[in-house]
């Protein structure tokens, strides 16, 4: 089976001891809390897509130079030839207050009160790495949208070094 790769972004804003999540109101991942992101369009860079999706989904502006790439995640679904290639970013400098949009209801969560029961099932595996400041590469193979068949996570020394060898 030929695997088709689609590139997505996923942005987490941090403030004090809190993280901004959004409750997805429609479409893929509906009713789950997640970071803000979506597909990278052909006319933009991954960083531009990350800033655009954050703005569209939460009304918050971020400069691309403030986005720190902290992880690379790959999701596959049994029987589906598409692999989701998700570039994860974190930022603690941004402009504006999060507001509800057509896609998301934003809310700040204390780091010890992340709503894992209402999130993608992989999140409670890699959030602890993210919250402790690690860089990482994760692969998750799903059956449907709620069952992880298998996964692997690797901590990374640097994202630049990772992308030099991971095409
Ligand atoms: N399993 C898992 N854990 C954490 N985050 C994610 C997943 N799967 C995912 O897809 N994601 C993230 C990656 C993206 O940030 C979003 C999905 O993007 P989506 O909303 O489908 O993309 P858009 O381009 O905004 O979609 P439309 O506007 O076309 O509906 O979730």
Automatic annotation (TrEMBL):
Transmembrane segments: none annotated. Its EC number is 3.6.1.56. InterPro entries: 8ODP, NUDIX_hydrolase-like_dom_sf, NUDIX_hydrolase_dom. Residues 4-135 form the Nudix hydrolase domain. The keyword Cytoplasm does not apply. PROSITE patterns: NUDIX. One of its GO terms (biological process) is DNA protection. It comes from the Eukaryota. Keywords: Hydrolase, Magnesium, Metal-binding. Its cofactor is Mg(2+). It is an enzyme of class 3 (hydrolase). It catalyses: 2-oxo-ATP + H2O = 2-oxo-AMP + diphosphate + H(+); N(6)-methyl-ATP + H2O = N(6)-methyl-AMP + diphosphate + H(+); 8-oxo-dATP + H2O = 8-oxo-dAMP + diphosphate + H(+); O(6)-methyl-dGTP + H2O = O(6)-methyl-dGMP + diphosphate + H(+). One of its GO terms (cellular component) is cytoplasm. One of its GO terms (molecular function) is dATP diphosphatase activity. Monomer. Belongs to the Nudix hydrolase family. Oxidized purine nucleoside triphosphate hydrolase which is a prominent sanitizer of the oxidized nucleotide pool. Catalyzes the hydrolysis of 2-oxo-dATP (2-hydroxy-dATP) into 2-oxo-dAMP. Also has a significant hydrolase activity toward 2-oxo-ATP, 8-oxo-dGTP and 8-oxo-dATP. Through the hydrolysis of oxidized purine nucleoside triphosphates, prevents their incorporation into DNA and the subsequent transversions A:T to C:G and G:C to T:A. Also catalyzes the hydrolysis of methylated purine nucleoside triphosphate preventing their integration into DNA. This is Oxidized purine nucleoside triphosphate hydrolase. It comes from Pieris macdunnoughi.
